Model the fold of this input.
Amino acid sequence: MPAAPARSATPHAVARWCAAQGWPVHPLAPGRKTPAANCPECRDRSHDPKTCPCLPAGRPCHGFHAATTDVRYIDAWWGSSSPSAGVGVACGPAELVVLDVDAHSVQVPDRSRLLPGIPNPDAVNLTGLASGFDTLALLAAFRGQPDPTHDETTLRVRTPSGGLHIWYRNPHPATRLRCSTGSSPKVALAWQVDVRADGGYIIAPTTRTAQG
Done:
């Protein structure tokens, strides 16, 4: 996994850098984590993003569905159209799986919710557990694997809220890995750990939001 671009890089440069890695990108609303707004026509009618005429015309409607590595579109979107737009990376087409580790200050749920589907016996001491960093470390310990938050072999990006994005390439691209949220009681990888994969996107390194 390549090192992240310099923090001083412009969104345009970051978008081009991502495309050079083979990662399709799409614009985010300036200062936000959400995709850029659709055009008026797309906002006014419901239709399948995959058949939307905006996409082949190079208009960045429908979020990650518009993601591309085509520098012609990238230069148009970030060069003059919206140079302050953030950069989103479509994880599925990029063959990426990103662990989004959160550190939100919220009440810790019952131990049965910490690692959905994995028994968490009372004998396991959970003193001090407070965030996704802790549940991911617990999952790694249960599986006898290294803690991904300490994995220096891949790209890791700190978030303004104190979280961490850990980037991995999908080792089996033919297998479509789905997204999940750490708040789900059934399909989460771990409490406060989201998975960004097929059907989702991740904010590119150095992209700034209102939170930082």
Summary: The two ends are 24 Å apart (CA to CA). The mean pLDDT is 91. The longest strand covers residues 96-101. Residues 96-200 form one domain.
